[in-house]
Amino acid sequence: MSSEPQRPWFHVKRRGRLLWLPVIAGTLALACQSFDTADGWASPQVFEDGDRALIIHATGEDSIVAIDPGTGESVWEFPDPDSDGRFPGLLPDIDEKVDADSFYAEPLLLAGEELAVATHKRGRVYALRLDGTSARLLMETGSEIVSELNLDAAGVLYVTTATAGVFAIDPARPLDPEKPLSAGEQPGLLWQYSAFDGTIWGSPALAHTETHGQILLVPTLGGTLYALRTGPASGTARLAWTFEADAGIGGDVVVADGRLFIGSFDRNLYAIDVESGAELWRHRSSDWFWTEVLVTDGTVYAGDLDGRVWALAAATGAPRWDAPYEGGDDIRAKPVPTADGAMLIVVDRDGFTHAIDRESGSGVWVSPADVKLPDLFYANPLVLGSEIFVANEAGELFRVSEDAVKRFYPPD
Amino acid sequence: METFELIFDTILIDPIMNALIILASALFGSYGLAIIAFTLIARFVTYPLVLRQLRTTRAMQEMQPRLQEIQKKYKDPRRRQQEMMKLYREVGFNPLGCALPLLVQLPIWIALYQVIRQSLGTTPESLFGLSGRLYDWSYITEAPPLDRNFLTLDLANPSFILAILVAVGTFVQQKLSTTRSVAKDDRQASMNRTMIWILPIMFGFFSLQVPSGLSLYWFVTTLFTIVAAYIYNGPENFRWRQLFTMEPMLAPSSAARAAGSGGNRSPSERASNDDDDKDTDTKAGERQTPGEPQAQREPQAPDSPPRRRRRRRRRRRRGGNQPWEQGENRAAGDGNS
User: Fold this and answer.
1) Residue B328 within any structural domain of the chain
2) Do A266 and B202 touch (CB under 8 A)?
3) Quick one: how far is CA A252 from the chain centroid?
4) Is the pLDDT of residue B265 over 50?
5) Quick one: B259 and B152 in the same domain?
6) Interface of B with A in 77-106 (CB under 8 A)
7) Do B128 and A378 count as a contact with CB atoms less than 8 A apart?
8) Which of the following CATH numbers is that of domain A39-140: 1.10.10.10, 3.40.50.970, 2.40.10.480, 2.40.30.170?
9) What is the ipTM of this complex?
10) Of A56, A221, B36, B301, which one's alpha carbon is 20 to 30 angstroms from that of B250?
11) In chain B, what residues touch A38 (CB-CB under 8 Å)?
12) Whose CA is closest to A374, among A399, A402, A354, A396?
């Protein structure tokens, strides 16, 4: 008589004993798959190309697309998905292919009907013709670019990278197609300044001062705001002054009426004198400020990561509304005024669009609550006449109104 | 699924995130030191599991002579299996004692991966999500962004050096937890040999895919376990030369000494209960079968100090006190081969 031996509950057949290895490996692989995709949050912009308007928008396929605002159809795309990364005008010796990459910096209009666009990962800056017929490489910085580009009156383009500092380049200096570049050669480079105390993700701003001339204001995640003298004659950048916040600065610098406004991870919104770097006032919130403020008619409007929108007097920091507007989810996007200036349009991270009365701070309407848009929203909304567009992290563009939300790009 | 995520976030990710930020702020702003401190705290908290793992490893080591005997005695695989299971139950051996610490660590690894990814802000989007996870205390909320650099490492990105250290550490840990096989051509032995190589390669490979902050946690965890095993088993039982052979690193004398002084107790426990051992020895001796092959149960350690050898000889004269001897006598009586 033979009976199966009684085995303890933890017994595993021999051939099954190695099975736990792929189980653990699979679990770890699933849990640790790369969520760290830098999708970019470049905001859609409108530019005039001759007699037509184009919405320039960063897509989810890591490209820049020019969209017809009337139809939502693509006019051109860079890099062209049908050309295996090749684009007319690019020098083969420098850059045979344009790698797809995400975009954080908004396109910036240069002289000569060109747009400067900066790719995130490889830190490349291209000049694209607005009609989409050609492109040329201006600079390869070798560092990630999250900050906006700046252009001064003399036509110098300031490219602020995350870790390699600021590059001042002359976008007009032509590259010689007959003369291949040697390694490391940067034909348009005027100067580079890299003595910063941390990574730079906030966007710099240019300001004109009596004491220092033109200054470039650069915020860092180390918590320091640097004012660099960048006069065209100086040949390089020199430090004018610095300002220390209590924590990192990830927001964008905005200059108005001799003051600069910047939000910080220490939950303060600062107003600073651009001449001296002295703090004028600060306003404390319940969460980080990581936004670009709107300054108009002597009032600063700013959203915070607690979903509140504040209206403060630019001169004193005194609240203009009885209470801040409670927006819902975190707000990174800049408040944008409507065409008539009566309302502010704010989009929160969950993609709900809020129309706020500028005078009272009360909510006028919110996009339909039953329409939960996919993905997250960090880019500034675009107000084009009476139409409002919001873009998500995946590069989809939606047309929003009080009672409807419809995907605009890519078209259905 | 959302509920699961919420629970996982509330119970693991948020507390670990805030704890690491507090530690980093307290340790000169160094996130690397914070990870090391966190690892040590986590290991001390889960020390009972580590101890269980060490005990299981030693129990396995101690069982080897008995398992060898069963292998020789019973040719029928079913009967052999039955006897082995009986032996496992008798000595209280549980294979999960080895696997449990690993399983407990899995959620911590996953949580730590998320924590490092967000708190070090490898992308603006990941740092953006951090603010909502921070406890409302300015010491914490004003700390980010944290310093990603530790020594020469960027903690937010994979490190080749740490991947090698993790692989080497895991290899040593595997060597420590691998016991002498019952039979060298047995499939179990083959699996043991495979495991010694597969796990280090697997963890080394993972270290190349994840932020080096997580690899640092793995490495310190492994180091902690090796040190704990070193202290638990006693330095004299470590055979470092066997690191480069297929033999186990723990000397068999450890098993003999443990058996001689009673079960799965640490050297300090055994020392404090020396008098109790005498009683146990006597009782065990009464159950001893006269013809028992002693040498198989208690292999002589060539490097044992003379005093210990004398004590062991005395015990042999009196009879073994292995916890499984009762079962062995029964098994011998049943002999079917």
Assistant:
1) no
2) no
3) 9
4) no
5) no
6) 78-79, 81-82, 85, 88-89, 94-96, 99, 102, 106
7) yes
8) 2.40.10.480
9) 0.84
10) B36
11) 123-125
12) A396
pLDDT in tens, B73-90: 887 888 888 888 887 777
Q: What are the phi and psi torsion angles at A343 (to 5°)?
A: -125, 160
Closest CA to A76 of A54, A46, A101: A54
Is A365 or A175 the better-scoring residue by pLDDT?
A365
Contact B301, B250 (CB under 8 A): no
Total domains in the fold of chain B: 2
Task: State whether B135 and B240 are in the same domain.
Answer: yes
Task: Write out chain A residues lying below 8 Å of B99, CB-based.
Answer: 20
Question: What is B33-96 written as a DSSP string?
Answer: HHHHHHHHHHHHHTHHHHHHHHHHHHHHHHHHHHHHHHHHH--SHHHHHHHHHHHHHHHT--TH
Which domain does B190 fall in, by range?
2-244
- Distances from the Cα of B22 to the Cα of A93, A269, B9, B124, B213, angstroms: 51, 24, 18, 22, 16
Burial of residue B146 (number of CB atoms within 10 Å: 0-12, 13-18, 19+): buried
Classify residue B273: in a domain, yes or no. Answer: yes
Which CATH architecture describes the domain A292-412? Beta Barrel (2.40)
Give me the half-sphere count of Cα atoms (radius 13 Å) on the Cβ side of residue A49. 20
Shared domain check, B289 and B144: no
A chain contacts of residue B56, beta-carbon cutoff 8 Å: none
Residues of A in contact with B192 (CB under 8 A): none
